[in-house]
Structures are given as C-alpha cells and as structure tokens.
C-alpha cells in the first residue's frame, strides 16, 4: 500500500494482509501447521537467537496469526501486537512480563468479573497482589499506588456496562509514579476508543467479543504502544536485563518501541504457552473486517434501546453513557465520540424478581454469559458472571441484585425494542 495514512475502515479490511505470495490467495490462508522448515542451519540459528524474524513453531509465531497481530496493532495505533488464546491469557502474559513476587497491580473495581477473579485469586500463586482503587477518579488510583506497584489496570468502557473511564487523568497518575497504564479495550474496540492516543502504554483485548464479533472464536491480544521508558525505573528486569538464553541480549535495547510485545512473545508465550490456533486467528481476522460497520450499528441500536428503557414505567434506572443526561456522557464525548458501545445495565422497579422474569420472558435475546455477539444478549450479573464476588465487591463492581446487563446486537432495532416491550409488559 502507498504511504498515505489509511482510514480506520480501510485498515480493518487490509492492514497486515497481502495476497499469498505462493498461491495468490486473496483471503489470508489458514496456515494449519505446527512447525516451519528452516532455509539452512544458519537461518535456524539466527531465528533461535532472535537475530532474524521468522517462523519456528506455532506456539510462538504463525503466518495467519501474524496478519491478525499486524491488523490489531494498526487499528490501535501501536508498534506491535501479540495474539494469544484468550483475553485472560493476554492479561496473564502482560502481567507476567511486568511482575515478580511481592509486586502489585493497581486496578479499577469496574472490571470484567473474570478479571476480578484472576487478580484476586489465581495471581496469589505467583506472589502477585492486587490493590483496588477505591473509586473511579484518578485520585483513587494515585492513593493505591506504592513502591511495589508495577502497572495500573483499567477498562476503557468498563464492565458491567455504561461507564467510561478518564484514561488521560489515570495515565498521568500512573506515569508520575513511573508505571505503565494498561487498558483493556475489549468493550470499546479501537473503533470507538483509542486508548493509546490518551496515554495508555499497553492495550489488551479479548478478541472473543466485539473484535471477532460473531460469538464463534476465542482469542486475545496485547498491543504495545511503544511509549513507555522501561529502563528509567529499573523495575522491569525481564525487559532491561541480559537474557542468557538469547546470547545475553537486552530486549529493551534490541527492540526499542516493540520490546514489550516481543518480551511477552519470546519469554511469556514461549514459556507459559497460551497460543491461539491459526483457525481462530482466521475467524477473528474475518470478523475484524466489518468492525467499523458493526460497532456503529451496535452503538446506534444500544442508544435507541436505552432511550426506550429510560421511558418505560417498569424501569427504575438506565446506565448508558450515550444518553445525554448520563453522568458519564462528558467522558463519552471525549473518549468515545462515535458511540458508547453495545453493553449497558439497567435496573427494574421490581428488583431481583423482575430482572429474573424479564430474562425468562424475552424471545429474541439470548440468556448467556457473553457480550459482543451480532445477537442481542442478556444476563443477570449478580447470579452469574459476578456470582463468585463478595456482596460488597458485587455492588462496587456495579453488579448489585437489581442489575440487568444487556449487549445489544445488530438486529433491526425495532425488533429488539418490541421484544423488550412484550417481556416487560408480561
Ligand atoms: C471477556 C473479557 C475478558 C476475558 O476474555 P476471554 O477471551 O474470555 O478470556 C477480559 N476483559 C473483558 C472486558 C472481557 O469482556
């Protein structure tokens, strides 16, 4: 492609891909192979020594996955990306690169329920701790940071829906403390929000959701903004100390602005192993081609549904940043000008029982634990996704007993509203 910078919609279709050099195949082929033949012994040695880029084994790189990685990096405006088996494994590899026993992550309480579990329980086995920011403001993050903090972790559009985080203010607090800001951009996608433009150093994705968009394949991604100075603090030894297994090279010195993504690959993915299958990489890549069309339609539909719910007599409250009177609407205008996404929460006047009845009576909506499908989805977080949390943490995470969460699909908005209307009136 020529040097003129391409628009988002063009990158979503083309970035990272070219017709297959051997067959001319226009769609990216699924390279369903575990391993790759070396040109000769010197080539093999240079690949293993990180002196040349190339394919060795699909746990570490694969040509189909490579196109997905380049595309996600281009859409987020990062220097490089790593695609992995799931959103959770992207988190694991990112944290593994930054943390050692005794270190902590300062995190928002408004996170995906699975992320709250991962941070509070499984990470203890690594000797890693989590410190929760008391509220959503940057001051709460500042208060939680101490000398053992190695990163700040937030979602851009935050779970379980309807919240926009002040990325710039939180990035500033993180940078003043000498730590990177990690933003999980799963719910917004780079179509609605570009965290790197607002100071994020690392962007994470569950590609399983809106990026793939069809509810058919798991995947995750780590995007390196290339902006963070890993050497300044001396707190990130995986990046700044010589690696004996790679002839003593220092990843930060050798790979500069791509060092974090490369470190997650050649140390984290190499040793912990959550590789994405080439078939899933292909499915996700195909989904990303229509990302701009889908996200606009998801957001436009969600706004119509939120307006309908807000005017309904059975509804107590609606939390959707796209509504002009919503407390997060100012942040939405700044960070997600094109739309506030598909996922939001509302409460019914009838409380817990009314929520359960609504879920039962809907016909078009699917009752399941996912977001970001083409189909409209509904769930009652307190009894499902956020069930394992303590009551206190449930409420802090926005998943109290009366809360219903919906992920609005790309169906005809009149049909979505009609389904809600019939279920609410029963
Ligand atoms: C689903 C999700 C994850 C976890 O991703 P998986 O692909 O299910 O492992 C992380 N963060 C957010 C915001 C999610 O929605």
TrEMBL record:
GO cellular component, one term: cytoplasm
Segment forming the signal sequence: none
A Gene Ontology molecular function term of the record: O-acetylhomoserine aminocarboxypropyltransferase activity
Domain of life: Bacteria
Gene3D superfamilies: Aspartate Aminotransferase, domain 1, Type I PLP-dependent aspartate aminotransferase-like (Major domain)
Cofactor(s) the protein requires to work: pyridoxal 5'-phosphate
N6-(pyridoxal phosphate)lysine, modified sites: 209
Keywords: Pyridoxal phosphate, Transferase
Residue numbers spanned by region Disordered: 1-25
InterPro entries tied to this protein: Cys/Met-Metab_PyrdxlP-dep_enz, Cys_met_metab_PP, OAc-hSer/O-AcSer_sulfhydrylase, PyrdxlP-dep_Trfase, PyrdxlP-dep_Trfase_major, PyrdxlP-dep_Trfase_small
BP-aspect Gene Ontology terms: cysteine biosynthetic process from serine; L-homocysteine biosynthetic process; transsulfuration
PANTHER family, sorted: HOMOCYSTEINE/CYSTEINE SYNTHASE, HOMOCYSTEINE_CYSTEINE SYNTHASE
Family named by the database record: Belongs to the trans-sulfuration enzymes family.
Name of the protein described by the UniProt record: O-acetylhomoserine aminocarboxypropyltransferase
Lineage, uppermost ranks: Bacteria, Pseudomonadati, Pseudomonadota, Alphaproteobacteria, Hyphomicrobiales
